[in-house]
Design goal:
Blueprint lengths: L1 H24 L5 H24 L4 H15 L2 H14 L2 H28 L1
Length: 120
């Protein structure tokens, strides 16, 4: 049940962030997917490090937040599809830019979340 509740909340958050990003930044590049992937990586690094190294967290919270909410919020399948669509529509440079930004920014955000949780 915890995974289902977190998943529903994460899916709704992903939808609203994607809509917000498209209205603010345009729909010709998948900014919403990039945003939720980077923020999700940061939050997962922060939450799981806090939950496993700093404080005692009930396993149900880990299921709700990490597996449910953040698993649903981040969108690797959307990222993959959108990267291939960019390749077809906008060319190799746009596709490579999207992939590099998602991977590099996601890794950096996860590292930042882990580092932040260790100094809190």
């Amino acid at each position: 049940m915890a995974v289902a509740i977190g998943g529903a909340l994460g899916a709704c958050a992903r939808y609203f962030v994607s809509q917000w990003a498209a209205s603010r930044l345009g729909a010709d590049f998948p900014y919403g997917t990039l945003l939720v992937n980077v923020v999700g990586c940061f939050l997962l690094g922060l939450f799981l490090t806090l939950a496993t190294e700093r404080i005692i967290v009930n396993p149900y919270w880990r299921l709700l937040v990490a597996v449910g909410f953040l698993g649903s919020l981040t969108t690797f399948s959307s990222f993959s599809y959108e990267t291939l669509r960019l390749l077809d529509a906008a060319g190799l440079l746009s596709a490579i830019s999207n992939a590099a930004l998602n991977v590099c920014a996601g890794l950096l955000a996860a590292w930042a979340g882990i580092a932040l949780s260790r100094v809190l």
